[in-house]
User: Fold this.
Amino acid sequence: MARQATIESPLHGLMAEFDSAQALLDAAHKVRNAGYTRTDAYSPMPIHGLAEALGMKERKVAPFVLAGGIAGMFAGYGLQYWTSVIAYPLDIGGRPLHSWVSFIPVTFELTILFAAFSAGISMIVLNGLPQPYHPVFNAARFSMASSSAFFLAIEATDPKFDAGQTAAFLASLHPREVVPVDH
Amino acid sequence: MDVSQKDTQDPLGALPIITPGYSYASITDKLTALVLTKNTPAAWFAFMAVGFTLLMGLMMSLGYLLVKGIGIWGNNIPVGWAFDIINFVWWIGIGHAGTLISAILLLFKQDWRTSINRFAEAMTLFAVACALLFPLFHTGRPWLAVYWLLPYPNVMGLWPNFRSPLIWDVFAVSTYGSVSLLFWYIGLIPDLATFRDKAAKPIVKKIYGVLAMGWRGSARHWYRYETAYLILAGLSTPLVLSVHTVVSFDFAVSNLPGWHATIFPPYFVAGAVYAGFAMVLTLAIPLRAIYKLHDFITMRHLENMAKVTLVTGLIVVYGYVCEAFFGWYSGSLYEREMLRLRIFDGYYPWAYPTLLVCNFLVPQLLWIKKFRRNITVLFTVAMFVNVGMWLERFVIIVTSLSQDFLPASWAIYSPTRWDFMTFFGTIGLFTTLMFLFVRILPMISIFEMRTLLPEAATKSKPEGESH
Assistant:
């Protein structure tokens, strides 16, 4: 089953399949403790603590949302100030040109609009989507990952990766099976 | 299977969110098979036929409107706003329940929302689409409306008037539509991946594959996904409250008796949620029967929706009381006369009592558990609320405008056949979009249903420790 991983090898990594969310989570902790860093887990629904168990530390979505929201706020208020006070000053019912109270609703809406799209777009871009091809789809049973199966992959680029030893290590985690995944 | 461990049972009763006995595979197969099948239920064709016919009526009435102008509608001074704004507010209000279910109930960790959030979100989108048609076509020549609706550097050097609630409304509703679409699409991505993996035909696989953008359920992806989803819910919550608040400003900022009241924002928001939940019930009950979704949309869901309907209905009635009190307490002759004309002997004496029957009396049935758990009663009450909330906007808009300050300028408004055709046409548009949606996309969020299964419960072990 285990094949030699050389530089020219088309091997993406080794993938173990587990029967339950709990088994996958436990395996992820063990893989991390064993020192593997280039790993990923695949599940049909979010499992709390799984990304952290694999060592994910990135928290970029929230800062992007904050930045987007602040940009939206300035864009909204700036647009209204510029059009009403500078570009086309128009006396409407004797109200001041800079009627800041009236500018709040649009400022608020644009804050939400920019923040929401920052959340959606940053999630998609940070996840590297759209991604037309990924090697994990080459595994025969991987199509089950979107319905009922749980997978854990250790990639061949991991510094600790050794086809034989890693396969033996994965097999010790009581998976359903361990398969090599090609590019 | 002990379902209660995952708190899927009602603490007060014994109604589960999902009928026990499902696994990841069976829940996926059942919900996927609703779409990836050649067997379309006969009822689907029946609803589609009615919806599509009405939609053709909409096309015809809008086509005629573009040729002749908005003179084909019944609204004219003093009733410059009538069916167009009534229907706009009605549809926008209906949309609000979708966001409430998908965002606010998510933040409150109400697990039961999972079975109904997807189609309620779709309902929001389609309701917003129907709503937008009205102000757009009320402009008469929508292709010229762009420069006073949207700020763009046009050749005349003109900009919209940002001191007007009407322009706030443009921003509020378009933001609401865009954010709802984004929230809905992001929620769909993992389920589109399921469809991609389950579809048998290559072309179907390809279409869902493109829409799923290569989603593979990676743990890191799920982490960012959940963060973004929660943030979107958090952003949608103030957004949905702001939208109907801004819609109410269209009225409340004016000086017209019957419109100029500070109770309007909360009263409109409650009315929106009330109308929306009635519409979710109106849709959920037939969909549940047609697609045999009794295991996922259980009596628990219907009963919870009935409770929300009852509570928001009472807030709306409180709004009626406040409105009347403000009118009387203002001491203004015009406010007091408007109330007298609206409630007793104005041009439309039938409207207010009918409104009270639909929105106040009939929903009181929902206090009784037996009625909350009776499909026929629930559906009937929901229909009464649908009608009642439409009448509420009729009463607010038409009675206030038709008889305002100067008796010499009073006039009776009556809608024309084109008004009715456009209104029923949007119901056709809504029905058509809704049934197309249930045919080609998952109407229940499959991945979220998986998280509700007892086997999805996990315990994270502290590193290096073994239990």
